[in-house]
Specification:
- It contains six helices and no strands.
- By secondary structure, it is mostly helical.
- It folds into two domains: about 70 residues, no CATH class; about 70 residues.
Length: about 150
């Protein structure tokens, strides 16, 4: 296998992640645009859904070596921080979107879950900044996400 076919095979493996990440970011931008033009009540759900989608898309793109290589060299060292922050914040933003869609006592449960999720995210991101251990609080993060 020649160098050209090796490069093509490597890029082919990254196409799905690139397309998925780009699609999620575009959906997020579309939701934000819809929220900006709507100007009525009930807009916050679009803001949170757009944020959730955009963060997830950025997380996916940060996993694609070709996308990371396309970044300016000054931004490339920040990719691990983006990955960790997105991993901990995606569930929190998802819960905020669901909070906008719930009513009654389920809404109180969502508020409690959001508070716990934020605490876990802060602890996980803080631990990563200090010790570079990205998975330190990932198990509690999953437990809060999937009750």
């Amino acid at each position: 296998m020649g160098p050209d076919s090796q490069a093509a095979a490597l890029l082919r493996d990254q196409v799905l992640g690139t397309c998925a990440g780009t699609a999620f970011v575009m959906v997020g931008l579309a939701a934000w645009a819809l929220a900006a033009f709507r100007r009525r009540s009930g807009v916050r759900v679009f803001v949170w859904l757009g944020t959730w989608s955009a963060i997830y898309g950025i997380q996916e793109l940060a996993r694609v070596p070709a996308a990371v290589a396309a970044l300016p060299r000054a931004l490339q060292p920040s990719v691990p921080y983006v990955r960790v922050a997105a991993a901990y914040l995606v569930p929190v933003v998802a819960m905020l979107a669901w909070h906008e869609l719930t009513r009654g006592s389920l809404r109180l449960l969502m508020k409690a879950s959001i508070a716990v999720g934020l605490a876990i995210a802060a602890a996980g991101i803080g631990t990563f900044l200090v010790s570079r251990d990205a998975a330190a609080f990932m198990r509690p993060n999953v437990v809060v996400t999937v009750p």
